[in-house]
Amino acid sequence: MSPSSAAANSGEYRSRGPPRCVPAPDITTTFAIDILSWNLTELKLEASFMQLSSLLKATVCLIWPSSGWTTCAQKSASAFPSLLDATLDDLNRGLNSGIFTSVDLVNAYIERVKETTPTLNAVTEINPDAVSIAETLDLIRRQGGPLLGPLHGIPVLIKDNIATADKMNNTAGSYALLGAKVSEDSTVAAKLRKAGAILLGKAHLSQWAECRSSNSSNGWSTYGGQTLGAYYPFQDPSGSSGGSGVASSVGLAWASLGTETAGSILLPSDVNNVVGIKPTLGLTSRYLVVPISEHQDVVGPIARTVKDAAHLLGTIAGVDPSDNYTSAFPFPKTPDYAAACVKGGLLGKRLGIPRHVLHDRREAPLSNYSVTIFDSAVDILRSAGAEIIDDIVLPGYNMTEISALLTKSLHADFAVAIEKYFGQLATNPYNITTLRELRDWTQHEPREQWPDKNTLSWDNNLAEGLRNTDPEFWDVHLRLLYLTGPQGYTGALKNHSLDAIVLPTAFAVMNAAISGTPVISVPFGRHPDDTEIVKDKTGTLNAVAPNLPFGIGFAGAPFSEETLISIAYDFEQKVQAREVIKPYIKPKTDLEDTVRRRAEVESRQEL
């Protein structure tokens, strides 16, 4: 039995049926006419007959369930997609037909954030201009003007280390950056705005992307508090993009952006039942993103489906003069990644499995169950027409050596990169300019909770004194590239003529992080109901527990995202894990509720 089937048959986590269509109390014919009148006014008689017809059908469904509640629910579900699972196609369909507006979407998502903040705490702040931006974008759509782009009026969350030149903060989870300002948007934020997206707010993250403390938990920061996953009480959300993973999983926005140095997109996607794409180094700009490593940092999408992640990746990819790593971008124009989402993507693909990686649990010591049922994923791949090249070897896979070298490399990178970021600030409220000043400020600022939460990473960094401009750094860095490149993923892909390497996601992180190669994580299974709980390193969060999701990772050669997306999409369609793996807690407010409340308010105003 596949993990998805097991979840479906567990009795506790059944696939959710269509939403109930519950009439508002005291609905009368007069009220119904008022709502219809409001709809005509809202459309200003500019909508096409098809738009008006669709809108009236949805309204009639809400008010006159004459054909029975089941039919009504089906019509309502069609008009108002559940935000827990809504895709870009679903949202664009409703926006284009006039069933709901971008203001409705923003208000619904804000309510969902408010509902879940006491339990999940995935969003650090809401953009105070989100509603007014949505109003402007709605007006453009209503007047028939050209849409700004493929994400026109679609709310997106971005991680709280991606800078924006607006009223929002960019804190990296630290009070040291509260009130700091940049003179322009980060490149990826600017690309989202150009495509018409609404920057709904900032998603929570592990403080400084987990490069400060050795004794803090995933998803914790002084500024934002503790984020929790939605699939078991006190679930470890992973990190450092834990807020982005949780928010996308329970529908607090259409999708989100995360960042990764070594696992910070893939691992939160893995445990939060969402799709994450860790792109090739150089595919997306890091300009004005709080950095760790210029040699490993990437920005990538976290979404509920492969196709939506592909849409978001296509929006942010491309050359940026402010990030010279993007000069490696090999395409004359950005590929249409979403177009790779077609059936049959696995047919004829050569997929390699380095089994010895699964036997070395140092990379993923808590992923025993995903290893146990990994072969059921392999069976699905094989049945879909993929050719499996089993038991390939990565000669450079020595986690003892790689881990030691990586720590040195990241320390040397961060010491230089954080100085550069401080220098790019237009407003630097505490005048911090170096790593040493940041460490000292943190240790003297009560809100930063030192020494309860240590600064060991920075202490060791400063004690080593290595910078990425030193000759010793290049010895370390080149050795890492050799172990993970010719002796790792890129070598194996070439030597075996592979389209991708496939592993449980938690085992697919390190090689790709260091070599700068892409990985896509796709939801696959869940831990069974009798799983024994395992705590995280702090003893406060549940790192392993019943119902916790996990995914399968597909790793490829540099700039092979199109191929990986094609493979991942076909696998996703075969598995449909999100159909059967459900969160134990989720928001109650949905889009239909927001539209109904708006109709009631505007109806009363007209009386």
UniProtKB/TrEMBL annotation:
InterPro entries: Amidase_dom, AS_sf. It comes from the Eukaryota. Gene3D superfamilies: Amidase signature (AS) domain. Signal peptide: none annotated. Residues 104-564 form the Amidase domain. Residues 1-20 are annotated as: Disordered. This is Amidase.
